[in-house]
Amino acid sequence: MNSFGQIFRLTSFGESHGRGIGGVIDGCPAGLEIDMEFIQNELNRRKPGQSKITTQRNEADRVEFLSGIFEGKTQGTPIGFMVWNQDQHSNDYNNLKDVYRPSHADYTYIQKYGSRDHRGGGRSSARETIARVVAGAIAKLLLQKQGIRIDAFVKRVGEIELQKSYKDIDLSQIDSNIVRCPDAEVAEKMIARIEEAGRDRDTVGGVIQAVIQGVPTGFGEPVFNKLHADLGHAMLGINAVKGFEYGSGFEGTKLSGSEHNDIFIKTESGIRTKTNNSGGIQGGISNGEDIYFNVAFKPIATLLKEQHTVDKEENETVINPKGRHDPCVLPRAVPIVEAMAALVIADHYLLNKINQI
Amino acid sequence: MNSFGQIFRLTSFGESHGRGIGGVIDGCPAGLEIDMEFIQNELNRRKPGQSKITTQRNEADRVEFLSGIFEGKTQGTPIGFMVWNQDQHSNDYNNLKDVYRPSHADYTYIQKYGSRDHRGGGRSSARETIARVVAGAIAKLLLQKQGIRIDAFVKRVGEIELQKSYKDIDLSQIDSNIVRCPDAEVAEKMIARIEEAGRDRDTVGGVIQAVIQGVPTGFGEPVFNKLHADLGHAMLGINAVKGFEYGSGFEGTKLSGSEHNDIFIKTESGIRTKTNNSGGIQGGISNGEDIYFNVAFKPIATLLKEQHTVDKEENETVINPKGRHDPCVLPRAVPIVEAMAALVIADHYLLNKINQI
Amino acid sequence: MNSFGQIFRLTSFGESHGRGIGGVIDGCPAGLEIDMEFIQNELNRRKPGQSKITTQRNEADRVEFLSGIFEGKTQGTPIGFMVWNQDQHSNDYNNLKDVYRPSHADYTYIQKYGSRDHRGGGRSSARETIARVVAGAIAKLLLQKQGIRIDAFVKRVGEIELQKSYKDIDLSQIDSNIVRCPDAEVAEKMIARIEEAGRDRDTVGGVIQAVIQGVPTGFGEPVFNKLHADLGHAMLGINAVKGFEYGSGFEGTKLSGSEHNDIFIKTESGIRTKTNNSGGIQGGISNGEDIYFNVAFKPIATLLKEQHTVDKEENETVINPKGRHDPCVLPRAVPIVEAMAALVIADHYLLNKINQI
Amino acid sequence: MNSFGQIFRLTSFGESHGRGIGGVIDGCPAGLEIDMEFIQNELNRRKPGQSKITTQRNEADRVEFLSGIFEGKTQGTPIGFMVWNQDQHSNDYNNLKDVYRPSHADYTYIQKYGSRDHRGGGRSSARETIARVVAGAIAKLLLQKQGIRIDAFVKRVGEIELQKSYKDIDLSQIDSNIVRCPDAEVAEKMIARIEEAGRDRDTVGGVIQAVIQGVPTGFGEPVFNKLHADLGHAMLGINAVKGFEYGSGFEGTKLSGSEHNDIFIKTESGIRTKTNNSGGIQGGISNGEDIYFNVAFKPIATLLKEQHTVDKEENETVINPKGRHDPCVLPRAVPIVEAMAALVIADHYLLNKINQI
After folding, report:
1. Hey, are the CB atoms on C246 and D243 less than 8 Å from each other?
2. Which of A50, A191, A329, B254 has a Cα-to-Cα distance from A260 of 20 to 30 A?
3. ipTM value of the model?
4. Where is NADP(+) bound in this sequence (chains A, B, C, D) (predicted)?
């Protein structure tokens, strides 16, 4: 239940205010060179305190590998790793111990397990996604060898939307600004919108778009594990995600079939489609075109505002949290979206090796 | 890869124009009374030829159970079943044998497997969903015992949308019309829209909404198998689905956190939330409120229109399919959405039995 | 729970006196030619009534494939199949409905599931192994392409043992006699011993040895899924099996390490070992030598003798079963042992494709 | 591939001479009190250097929990843990870097993965079983609550065998001597035999017997996951194990069915069997009687003797290892056998909660 993937498989563990966040990657092939700097950089893209628009929790978030790598290469054995917690401020949460914060997992955890680690969300904290970013970074290294590239960027913050197709923007510029929207003008507006939410002690949601380029034909399993179904599963498992659509998505459902169908054409580089409403996936299997999808993030639940709620004794009460908060989770969620996409694609890359005799 | 679920687990097999569609349900507890009429009725809701707005393929689609049921009850042993194909018209497809129909799985199957059963889509045909409807019907019987009810309905066809909340409509009326939209007036417009698409030899897409009532707190696993992530996975595995959103969904991402948070209140029936933007799920775990979600269906790819494409020898060509087609898949997809939701909820119902010592 | 294998995966269903025994094979690569005669022959080697020393239940046991094969080849899609029951004599079991036969699964099934299909053992019947033989036959076809050959033979019946090494017998002669011991002289004694048990209305057990030749180095996963651990798991899942040993087995534990170690030598065909106490597996991974192991079968529990027991109301009683019985299960178990070995090796053959980048 | 169990599931990682050995336990129910002293004591029973007859590698082997435990209780979240390596002496292995030690995993690892961590066996080292002992200790704590008790002891060393039934010995005395055979007289002979092997710079094998008491009826799944099949799988996954038998085992195959069958009788404590050749398992499911089985351990491959072998360049060579070795692995393997049995039983205890509606 804390594992993800069939062959390339991550098992995640750890809590927000326990010893740290860790994971085990099983099924990574032997012989992959591990670029430690690249992995740490992916973690840095996720870490709190990286810019003025993210939470000021100050964590170094350095990954320590515990197994599976020898002389700089994977060994085919499980890769254990750990990111130790440091800036924990557990006591900040003592006054929230016995109340159920609105739209958090406090109430549902107690109902499910009979108890919970109340410190900073415990296991339900988005800090758990550290394990996904580390594993995703290794998946990215594996996929790079196959010429596969995964990019995600912030497409919308609140009402402020990047109106361009991903084809008309420079994906290499995603990290050129702190909001991770590769359009300077729109990025500026997004940053202002997030700062406004921060000042309001409130939060704002939005949409991340991801693009996967270089996937050959044949990835994906036809029925329950369609490539987009596994991608959707991965995305919906990220904290605060409320929706997923790929290719033409919800809007495309308004087209007629004759408008929506992607006509096959013959090109110098083989069979291609004229349009790409299919989002690079047909019948659940990659067709060689770009894979692209949108992920909806709600405004996260942690506000620094007075809110009515109920406590463990079922008395109504009021909370007024103090401290730090993350007015918009999207810039830091970009590497998480990329990481989960990488895990899915790496898994299907390996599964695809055994289709034919 | 053709199995779905952790504990309550369906394995599906069969092709559109082979012997039939079958499945095996493993993990269904012993002692469940099997209401054969109910199961057959669920299949009838899915079957082609059921009304003037669906494909006229004429299949009885009668389920035959092969194992696991004795004296009317499940035995805890695997439940095998089969729905034999009858009205196959395989020869209709001979002229499509060597071409790649636009936005179908023809090309990707060949690329993945090196060959394909070209007759009617083979394994990629939506006919495979028969297995899901049978298994879902048994899951529904199991969940009914727990007071859990699952309803889906057509919310939008092309641009024609039912603008009401599910709370303001009578879910018992879903099957009162052939389009399965429980609002007579909107249903009539939807039917007209589908008939128009049929006359155009074209197709039209839309949205199905599902509502799950009576789920207690505690279903769902916190990290990768969040209840909504498994629901999304299930929905995105249905043919023609392009998107999934639950609770406040994509629109909710435009709210601020203070607007979006669901305040806990104390009621006579225990702790509840004032609003339900969470869609009944918090931290991936059910909170006792109604679970609701939307599923986007593209206009399906099978048209009776002339279309440009490419054949197996990579020559450009034109196809002009004849025969029958389904102008809108949504009315028949309603029981499929319900079935897949039932499989997910049944699985989490069983998983939830082992949370606490 | 009714599935076996990670990638090449069999799901089995069916009861002894229900509609039949079926299965689904998922994960078989596309493009494998299916030799129907070979598969049916494997079933014939398992079927009852094949000789004077087996049960006289008279079943044709013809396999009917339901999916996954098109134009004589696998398609990469799940292969469903069914062997229909015919000679059921269900009424024979009515008098056993309410008693617990000694050393059968009657009592444990009732305790586990609250009810059971009492007809002929239901799901606990060895008739279920039909599914394994069909799937194993397909696995054998896949492995033959890799030059891998699996042979099992009866090594001991009661106290009568074939004292030779498998290297000193002609494995092509296994089916040359009805007891499947490839030594005419010993076979004759075994047959006499089985006939004696039959006349006594009693049963006799023994040992089957299996030899797998042609496995290259590298099959097996180092920790929990050591190649021999998966083989043992497979064998111990066969009805009536009480023990498993590979290579030097229980006897080898009496040697010292310096006697037991297999010295590596250089040969024309590469690195080999001088002896093979390791049974072709070191550290859980195949080393290129022959894999061989022994499987212990108890005398099966179905006797035609008066026996004391207890009924459902917990009253002591006496049963005196009539009808047919199988005095020795070993000759018919030979193809089952081979089939399960084939499933394990096929699975590891596929897993082994993804070890290295 | 490095995970074990369906519900109560251990994922293991780590190498002999890397950072340490770790694991993640997923699926442990919430609310279990963790007795740290008990867990550490189990580790101490496994650790090297504990007595004069084990290897003198000197490791503290202290377990550090990384997640999943809060205020002394499990939380239902994954339990990560680590045992750091200390006394590594990696350089001892430099001279073995390029040779294949006889009957070790050196050659097969290189063949499978293309490279290997040569230091002390790396992942193939029995040091990996630390993860199993920690997880097994938690499984034991869970099972103790259900009144289930698991004991293993050394039954044979070389030719020296404890000839008594486990019923005639005092299982509470297993740890009363360093060889873990609960019969002082036999233990003394075993110790002398092991010391002799040590002086010879050689090794000696033998048999461990395990007894599981207090398992209620109903544990085990009828087909592939028979309770004894899962136990056998677990045991055969332990380093150096060559065989497994339960109940009457290999010897019982020489009985006739009428001798072997266990007659049901009515007792004050309900239905029981008069004899227990079934080893507490019928049809793969526990019947309430004691479960007992034997595990064969070969003499381990690490000797301090001159041996012929081959190196990486395929040249024949001679090795003459120096340093420390373990003349007999059985005393330290006792807690490993118990741990693996506990993992299997805990898993089936949880699975058994979902048999019936």
Report:
1. yes
2. B254
3. 0.97
4. 46, 52
